[in-house]
Design goal:
Blueprint (H helix, E strand, L loop, with lengths): L13 H7 L10 E6 L4 H15 L3 E6 L6 H15 L2 E4 L13 H15 L3 E4 L7 H13 L6 E5 L15 E4 L4 H9 L14 H13 L4 E8 L4
Parallel strand pairs: 1-2, 1-4, 2-3, 4-5
Antiparallel strand pairs: 5-7, 6-7
Helix pairs in contact: 2-6, 3-6, 4-5
């Protein structure tokens, strides 16, 4: 018996492959909100997905909760990055440097509630509960609480970091970003103060995307954990 090394995607017909890759089509005509603790988190965790959604005509809002340092520089970089991805940018704790720990939990939930009320998203992408950054986990739990206001698909992306650290994460959905991987990397590169100025590289995110792609028969993919899906 011969076992081919070709992944599942290679065995699908063109129509079946198109159906299998209709993640963006699910949200066309609506809004997807991506919520990150700080500038660059969304690009690292889901930049390829956000670019793909935007390219498909989905309104994508990148919500950054706080800017902990170098406010003007980091907001400028975030604006450049959001433009590369084709997304709308929103800073929740705007006006100067703040940390998520500076606000009480009910205040953080209130800010996140405002996002849901303002945009009525069909889907939310945010951090997950296994992230090793405590403030990232706070954002996740805050977004869990917003589900009392509206029904939306709820996803968590790969734990984000500037240096690779082994953290448990099990994707349950894989989105093909072969056509947006370079856009993702350009968006990350816009955050020069976080990477180039500190002598750090982000190429390992290409490696992660390549491994995820191998799982599902495409060149590059991003993985999401699924907390909730809403069907008509």
């Amino acid at each position: 018996m011969h076992v081919s090394d070709a992944p599942l995607g290679a065995a699908l017909s063109d129509s079946a492959r198109a159906a299998a890759r209709s993640f963006a089509a699910r949200y066309v005509g609506g809004t997807v909100v991506a919520v990150g603790a700080h500038p660059d988190d969304l690009e690292l965790g889901a930049g390829g997905i956000l670019a793909a959604l935007s390219a498909a005509g989905v309104k994508v809002v990148m919500a950054i909760c706080s800017v902990p340092a170098h406010y003007d520089t980091r907001v400028s970089e975030a604006k450049d990055s959001a433009a590369i991805l084709g997304c709308e940018l929103r800073i929740l704790m705007e006006g100067g440097c703040k940390r998520i720990e500076d606000v009480k939990n009910h205040q953080l939930v209130g800010l996140l509630d405002g996002l849901v009320r303002d945009y009525r998203p069909l889907a939310v992408l945010t951090h997950g509960p296994t992230d090793f950054h405590h403030d990232h986990v706070q954002i996740y739990h805050g977004m869990v609480a917003t589900q009392r206001l509206a029904c939306f698909d709820f996803y968590s992306f790969l734990p984000t970091m500037c240096r690779p650290v082994p953290v448990p994460f099990q994707p349950r959905a894989y989105i093909d970003i072969s056509h947006t991987i370079e856009t993702k990397l350009r968006a990350i590169a816009a955050h020069q103060s976080q990477f180039y100025a500190r002598g750090l590289t982000f190429e390992f995110y290409r490696d992660v995307a390549r491994v995820n792609g191998r799982m599902v028969g495409v060149e590059y993919a991003e993985g999401l954990d699924i907390s909730k899906l809403v069907f008509a």
